[in-house]
Design a protein that fits this description.
With about 350 residues, the protein is of the alpha/beta class. It has two domains: about 40-135 and about 265-335, D-Maltodextrin-Binding Protein, domain 2 (3-Layer(aba) Sandwich); about 135-255, 3-Layer(aba) Sandwich (D-Maltodextrin-Binding Protein, domain 2). The chain has helices spanning about 10-30, 50-65, 85-95, 105-115, 120-125, 150-160, 175-185, 200-210, 220-230, 275-290, 295-300, 310-335, and strands at about 40-45, 75-80, 100-105, 125-135, 135-140, 165-170, 195-200, 215-220, 235-240, 265-270, 305-310. A six-stranded mixed sheet has the order 2-1-3-10-4-11, sandwiched between helices. Strands 7-6-8-5-9 form a five-stranded mixed sheet, with helices on both faces. Helix 7 links the parallel strand 6 (about 165-170) and strand 7 (about 195-200). Helix 4 packs across helix 7 (about 175-185). It is globular, with a radius of gyration of 23 Å.
Length: about 350
């Protein structure tokens, strides 16, 4: 018969207490990793095919499917338009379902603050991870002699704020819009009078630029690399604090051109509200492995983005802080709802 009495020896009692403490601490972690997907996982891209968001999602699929660490297929679904509302409506309809994921970006913070979005993604859904930071570049047609530098654009728009059409994706007031509006405001342009046109994706914005339908495009760096390298567009400014490397090393920052402005947009992953800690832990682990993969690192470097991995809790705190910062910025711009 095994005795259940507590040991009398103080050392034995201490040892037993330590073992119990370790078991209590380890048990939740072991339980948290017990869940795995039981059906195909859908990842919603709130933009059309071909843009930066779509490219990143297709790479996720490539890495996840090749490694087989999900145990299920990873399906990319493009649902553009509506400032992300199609994605958020889908998440809202599948509360507690960990098999549906979507993006979150700074754009949705500004959309919520500006009143065009009625949900604050990192609070109304479940932030899983943060993945990377992106800079915003300003592009014009290679043959456009009006805007050889950012200062040329600033001078033109100071005199006539609506004198050049600016394309953004995928909605007015989002992070792409803020990425060009912030430096223009710092340079003395009346940004409330700008002519800003929203396209479904940055790919569409750039097509419109090449066709002469718009004068300027603001976009994240992954979207411009191919056309920039082909010499079809001229990049006149980047929103980062210092110049980027590689194929964008010749693009000057706004600060280098006399405009004191820096801006980055962060890309994260959301799940539906109400998923379990075990399910959050699974996706944290899966995306951490993705972010450490050579395929992902090469893509981040090639696109001149910055790796910025954060887990669930840190992502919540990060977006809380960024919401406060964006509210201050958009209020100063006159874009925040009252």
């Amino acid at each position: 018969m095994i005795s259940c009495k507590a040991p009398r020896d103080p050392v034995q009692r201490l040892l037993r207490a330590l073992i119990l403490a370790v078991l209590v601490a380890v048990a939740p972690a072991a339980y948290a990793q017990a869940w795995t997907p039981s059906k195909p996982v859908e990842f919603i891209v709130p933009a059309g095919p071909g843009g930066a968001l779509d490219q990143a999602a297709r790479l996720m699929k490539q890495v996840f499917d090749a490694r087989g660490n999900l145990g299920q297929s990873f399906v990319v679904s493009n649902r553009p338009g509506g400032v992300g509302k199609p994605a958020f409506n889908a998440l809202a309809q599948r509360e507690g379902d960990p098999h549906l994921l979507a993006y979150t970006t700074h754009g949705y913070l500004s959309n919520f603050i500006g009143g065009t979005l009625d949900v604050l993604p990192h609070r109304d859904f479940t932030p899983v991870v943060l993945l990377l930071d992106e800079s915003i570049v300003v592009a014009v047609r290679a043959g456009d002699e009006r805007f050889k530098t950012a200062q040329d654009l600033v001078t033109h728009l100071r005199a006539k704020p609506d004198g050049a059409s600016i394309a953004v994706a995928a909605s007015v007031g989002n992070h792409i819009h803020v990425g060009i509006a912030k430096p223009l405001r710092a340079a003395g342009v009346d940004i409330g009078k700008l002519t800003v046109i929203a396209f479904r994706s940055s790919g569409d914005s750039l097509t419109a630029l090449l066709g002469g339908h718009v004068d300027v495009v603001a976009a994240t760096t992954p979207n411009v690399m191919t056309l920039h390298q082909a010499g079809k567009i001229r990049l006149i400014a980047v929103s980062s604090a210092a110049r980027l490397g590689g194929g964008l090393s010749a693009v000057p920052t706004w600060r280098e051109q006399g405009v004191d402005s820096v801006f980055h947009s962060s890309l994260g992953v959301l799940a539906a509200k109400g998923i379990s800690r075990a399910q959050i832990a699974f996706w944290e682990r899966a995306y951490r492995e993705l972010s450490e993969s050579e395929e992902w690192k090469r893509q981040v470097e090639r696109n001149q983005s910055f790796p910025h991995f954060l887990g669930h809790e840190d992502t919540v705190r990060f977006y809380d802080e960024e919401t406060r910062s964006m509210r201050t910025l958009l209020t100063a711009m006159g874009l925040a709802r009252q």
